[in-house]
Design goal:
single chain; alpha+beta; 2 domains; 12 helices; about 45% helix; Butirosin biosynthesis protein H N-terminal domain-containing protein
Length: about 375
């Protein structure tokens, strides 16, 4: 067979991560409403902080963490598709042909994830520049061009699009990744694949409670078990980031910042994915028309202000990078960003609490969904 592919279209409604965006694209073949799936992600704001005990080890970790950009505000999200997708791990023996295994799985209806090093891609932001091992998504192949058919964001970060990877480039990328397994998935047989049937009040309430939950835990420790880097999960991470914004932002190197700039907008991507949550609640008869309008306005505002913050943060970094001295205008920009973050913390807390309260009230009154 000269060419073979499974049905799939890139999902770019919002950015979650390369794996989940591709899983959503699979499910949308069965129900287009899975485009709303990012609304149902379990999410928490997260911030890493370096312990400053004056030791040499702590200083080295601090310098490295700042330069790598790992001390920036992030949003950690998790989506669980195990109820509708069948996942299998296939281990490869040294004598096995990875090409044969991939093609057999594709012909059996399985999409394939395999770790590849994008340094060996023929084109893209990492090609011959950076080692970047990630789970590539294969949905077909073309013998005429001797290429696998992928959906990738390697050309433009956070934008999924079709990408042809020649077999010889695949071989080098596969070898460099040093992996010995494939993850394959397909829609479960005899399962109802409908988005709204899996959209429950309990799930959304649990997600809101997770967003509001606060936790601080060690992330990296020294040989004696003392924390070198700690992690704050919860909305308070926003306030902590505001308090130390300048040192966290300007400690990162220019080369790393150019690679991390998209990640700075993760709070925006998260809030872009939740703008449809009020619509889902309204469709399920869990909120009234007036409550729907109020929530829609609140969620749209959060999305807009996180987008503004992300763009302003990137501009502020580049301005500072190319102007050697700190100016009053620069300090005013920093203060403005801090004030914006302080306001975002209050709005995030208010909106999450309000949504949870409305869901709790609808449960108490016995309101049920349409689906």
């Amino acid at each position: 067979m000269e060419a073979f592919s499974l049905p799939v279209e890139p999902f770019n409604g919002t950015w979650v991560n390369c794996v989940n965006n591709n899983l959503i694209s699979i499910l949308m073949n069965h129900d287009k409403n899975f485009a709303y799936a990012p609304c149902l992600a379990q999410a928490q704001y997260q911030l890493h902080s370096v312990a400053d005990d004056g030791s040499q080890e702590a200083a080295e970790h601090s310098s490295q963490a700042h330069e790598e950009g790992s001390l920036l505000l992030d949003v950690v999200r998790a989506l669980d598709f195990s109820s509708v997708l069948d996942f299998q791990t296939h281990s490869l023996e040294p004598a096995d042909s990875v090409h044969l295994a991939i093609k057999q799985f594709l012909h059996s209806g399985y999409y394939v994830f395999v770790d590849l090093d994008r340094f060996h891609y023929p084109s893209g932001v990492d090609a011959e520049k950076h080692r970047q091992i990630h789970p590539a998504f294969l949905y077909g192949y073309d013998e005429q061009t001797k290429s696998y058919l992928l959906i990738e964001d390697c050309m433009q970060p956070s934008k999924m699009e079709p990408y042809a990877l020649p077999y010889d480039c695949f071989d080098r990328a596969f070898a460099a990744a040093q992996t010995s397994s494939l993850i394959v998935t397909r829609v479960k047989e005899q399962e109802e694949v409908a988005f709204f049937s899996r959209c429950t009040k309990e799930l959304i309430s649990a997600n809101l409670q997770t967003l509001l939950r606060e936790e601080c835990k060690p992330y990296k420790t020294d040989h004696a078990g003392n924390p070198l880097i700690s992690t704050t999960d919860g909305l308070s991470a926003i306030k902590q980031f505001a308090d130390s914004l300048e040192t966290r932002l300007f400690g990162i190197s220019l080369s790393q910042f150019q690679r991390k700039a998209v990640a700075l907008k993760n709070p925006y991507f998260f809030r872009k994915s939740t703008v449809h949550l009020p619509l889902i609640l309204h469709k399920q008869n869990w909120v009234s028309e007036q409550e729907f309008q109020q929530l829609s306005s609140e969620y749209q505002t959060l999305c807009h202000e996180w987008e503004l913050f992300g763009n302003s943060l990137i501009k502020c970094y580049y301005k500072s990078c190319y102007s050697k001295a700190s100016t009053p205008a620069h300090q005013r920009e920093i203060e403005s960003l801090r004030e914006l973050l302080g306001g975002m913390y209050e709005k995030e807390k208010r909106v999450a609490s309000l949504t949870l309260e409305l869901l709790t009230c609808s449960t108490a009154s016995g309101q049920t969904g349409n689906f």
